[in-house]
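[step 3/7] fold_predict: job queued, chain A
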Amino acid sequence: MSDHVDVLIIGAGLSGIGAAHHIQSAFPRRKYAILEAREAIGGTWDLFRYPGVRSDSDMHTLGYRFKPWTQAEAIADGPSILKYVRETAADAGIDKHIRFGHKVVGASWSSSDARWTVDAVHNGLTVRLTAGFLYVCTGYYHYDAGYQPDFPVIEQFGGTVVHPQHWPENLDYVGKKVVVIGSGATAVTLVPALAEQAEHVTMVQRSPTYILALPAKDVIANSLRRLIGPRRAYSIVRWKNVLMATLIYQLSQRRPKVIKAMIRKAAAKQLPPGYEVDVHFKPRYNPWDQRLCLVPDGDLFTAIRRRKASVVTDRIQEFTPSGLRLESGAQLDADIVVTATGLRLLALGGMRLTVDGHDVKLPETMAYKGMMLSGVPNFVFTVGYTNASWTLKADLVSEFTVRLLGHLDANGYTQCVPVNDDPRVTEQPLLDFDAGYVRRSIDEFPRAGSRQPWQMGMSYAHDVVKLRHGRIDDGVMRFTALR
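[step 4/7] structure written:
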């Protein structure tokens, strides 16, 4: 492979493979490469291997726009998603452009050369590449370690403590008492999966989360696929699901009491008679202040009805040799404790950016259209939606990038950079989302702005207009040619 490419993509996960597909399809003669820190394609879907790992979005929107999801299950398990991503890479020959085991540590832009110089560590040595355009698809999770609070005297516990991000391959939980700490998407996925073989699984939560049961299979999607073929059916179902998700999100913002009542009623129907629904399944916040947790076919509720799982809403006072002591005084015995306590975020994979010799301090930059950085030329990054499927936004970012590169070619430009010189624009957090993992790290990320095009859009329909069809030369993006 050449040490200079036209486009260098960082990350071979869901976003990176999609980005490569768009770039390769639009510009078959351009040279591109993908640098992947790990030794495999898949990103998040290769990293997380805990029991039951699955999507928390339907695959008709989490899947790529250009590659229909054809399996019957709309809420898919991790291995199926990983297979889908790897098939996409293999079918298009994208896998031949990936350099595995290359962790990018720094990237430096030179305006005089109109190129990036990128340093990556491979087998302990620094490898250097140059590129005309840098496309970062690292997501925002910290792959080295998840978040775990400092639990009191955790060292006293005589059993096994596991974080889902680093699940041991041969962990034996058959016939064991398992406690899962947490109430987010990971916890509600783990509990029913572990309950199939464990003696009992207890989910300990400080406060409840909104949990909504959906059918694992989309009857409409499966019927349409038989009637009109997979590609046309996929497009229809994709928009059907986008519109339904948007409706629920907008109602959650404008009529939260209606959605609260709907979710509570649905949960109560699936729980045992007399169950304390308001204690364990009535959050203090409004729907979509944090992400809704989806459970396919209500599997969490099924495990509770069968008494294979239970929920305890309390705070942990301390670990004991045999389990946990709660602030209420209750004692929970456990052989295994799973700390599903959240994730850590890491902006741009932790790489250092410089522009013409000056360090780029991310919190001092502003995100243009949620995908470029003010003052940073020929640079795009992908951050998906928090209120919808990640890939919906990732696909649009790729489409805009293709249009942007085409504009450069058509006009003989070599550099594009968004410039914020509007004094009316005030700073806002990049992600307006109340989840703990966001609150802990958001100050390390770029900022969003109070006005377009600096706002971080969270509406797919609006972003389709802006990113797929909006003007490229909008007065904020500045273009120059290398002299």
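[step 5/7] annotate
The mean pLDDT is 94.
The chain has two domains: 4-143+344-480, 157-213+256-339.
exit 0
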